[in-house]
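Why this split exists: single-chain examples teach little about how molecules sit against one another. For that reason, every record in the complexes split bundles all components of an assembly together and asks for one structure covering all of them. Below is a record exactly as it appears in the raw files.
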Amino acid sequence: MEFQFQFDWQAAINSIPYLLKGIPYTLLISFGGLAIGFVLGIIFGLLSINKKWFFRWPATAYIEIFRGTPILVQVLFIFYGLPDLVGGPIDPLTAGIAAIALNSGAYISEVVRGGVQSIDKGQTEAGLSLGLSRSQTFWSIIWPQAFRRMIPPLGNQAIVSIKDTSLFSVIGVGELVRQGQVYIANTFTAFEVYFVVALMYLAITLSLSLVLRLIERRGLASV
Amino acid sequence: MTQIVQMRGMNKYFGTLHVLKEIDLTVDAGEVVVIIGASGSGKSTLIRCVNGLEEFESGKLVVDGNELAPKGGNQKALAEIRKEVGMVFQQFNLFPHLTVKKNIMLAPRKVKEAPEPIASATADRLLNRVGIASQADKYPSHLSGGQQQRVAIARALAMEPRLMLFDEPTSALDPEMIGEVLDVMRELAKEGMTMMVVTHEMGFAREVADRVIYIHEGQIVEEGKPADVFDNPQNERTQAFLSRVLAH
């Protein structure tokens, strides 16, 4: 049996306008979720290294739960499970942003913890010995140094989260993969369309890598 | 004479290890006290108690009229003390994300809320004084160890401290840079700064100290004028220590 496959360039090109409609959703869910995740990460990351157990334990529980369960299960739980609890439907976009926020927040907490703990104790001692309060010492001495070290792992997390949004096609958000699936259902050009979808993800993540590299080069030059 | 530091029956433990035993010590205004002893004897811990970087378990500690309570009590007194006591560390502990000048301006700006032009002028004056005015806009990592330590001294002086603590300020330096740091400290002593110095530089101790304290296993075993301690030590532990460090 002879089988010949031909990549249908025309089909690939034709799919582009339809697929592009998914990109705003992919970006909105990724970056909206990451922005909230960053705030959660700072809060829970700092709580997780607090001396007091009643701050540390809940933060650690949050981190372990959201790192230790699949993001697909998390978003299904939020979209299908939570409405029973809150007594009303949750729209897919909100569910997607919430899932990215909570999930990336857990990983970013660990990034924040690692960044802060990597700063030499002598820095805190120098700040305190100069008369700065604990919070002044933290925000003007420790945090700026820790943040620079956090940039590469934060970039890493951003890329992971962008790709994670592809799973949210299951709850029907019109993001990139979902758009692709709908298009393929009508044209039966799976190879070409998923190829274009993959290229679009690559375009987003490569642009982000490039921006991060520029920031890193500038930010780390002085340390 | 005003007493800047007063320690009475001070005890400090690291877990079960008794690192400072019944320390009685006073430092008068303008006095330079050099603390010597083997590593692990508790000499660094002793001066780190003065500005509360280490807590003590019992006894009394008064710094410039502010009484610290054991186990980190009395945070208000501690805040006052830290504004009035400068410290220079073995590893410099400069802030690597700030320029030399910003390192010096940080505390006056944040703690004293000094206006920018005044803090800037103070920084320039101090950099001049420690001989590195030309490095003001560089980052610490671009300076030699000796220069970094001089910046650290300037940074502490910017708060106009009543007392300066030096915790082995030359131990992390290459030999050829020790002199430039000791010169700055010598000047400071000459100008009447009250200083507590932990060091292994016996020549400096002999020359600059008003009083030398030898500490052994957490206890002050000998105390006196440098000439007396170095040339005529009474305690046999001091004799043994000095014969070891002065021999080479």
